[in-house]
Amino acid sequence: MKPTQFAYDRPDSVEEALELLDEHEEAELLAGNQSLGIIMANRFASPERLVDINRLDDLAFVDISESRVEIGAMTRHRTLERHDDLRSVLEIVPEAAEQIAGPAVRNRGTMGGSVAEADPAGNYPTVLAALGGHVHVASVDGERTIPADDYFVGYMFTDLEEHELITSVSFPRDPFPPERTGSAFVELKRGSQTWPTVSAATAVRVDDPSREEPVVEEARLALGNAAGIPLRVDDALAELNGDPLTEAALDSVAAAVREVADPTDEMHADREYKTEVAGEYAVRSLRRSYDRACGSEN
Fold this sequence. Notes:
- This protein has 11 helices and 14 strands.
- It has helices spanning 14-23, 36-41, 77-81, 84-89, 92-97, 103-108, 111-117, 123-131, 148-151, 247-260, 271-294; strands spanning 7-9, 28-30, 49-52, 62-64, 68-72, 134-139, 142-147, 152-154, 157-158, 165-172, 181-188, 198-206, 216-224, 231-232.
- The protein starts with 6 loop residues before the first strand and ends with a helix.
């Protein structure tokens, strides 16, 4: 099957892209084309116009400052996967990138495309939720910044307006000094080209990595494919702060996660199974983050 006919634009600047989106309300943006092309080929979507933003090189960047990490919307998964400077300050992002599908997808797929699609099983949406990141968007009317907690509204539904373009996402660095912070992204998948059955993104900051049993000062956790949106599990982490990470505390987190998880049934994983896995992978990710923060990961 082939897609229906459509008009095609390939702007050379962000300004031109925004003008096209404002002029043509029915237009769909084309970035890495790792999802939209398949949907169109099967005629599950038939947009009348595509705006191809692959020439917008200004949106392909990684900017690491003292206060935050900002990643341009057109930055490819492969770039993030291989970015050593990014890995040294926020390991979770390259780790999430390297687990996306296979090389062909990682070579073409983009940060902005994944965040715009907002699939609750997506790696970047889960990381954004865990770290309290922000989505930066632009339109002919100006720019605005949307906190991750407000951006994800429902299953593949966001606060993004039709005439808006994601220009970048950002992650705060202030709560996560690399010298005593660990982060991790772990997932269960049936195969490399599939979506995760469940994933967990975490970050843990400790007081002093040189101590025999470093104390957890702050922990963050979000789960992918465990609800209609990336699922923040703040209440489950409350008793971790102020103590070393113990097996008893992790058991409590797993129980709390299973209590709040609300996954949907899938062909290869029913709701009960995914709920159980969510608790287990939350523990695995927290343990890895803590070990990294303490400098003791094997």
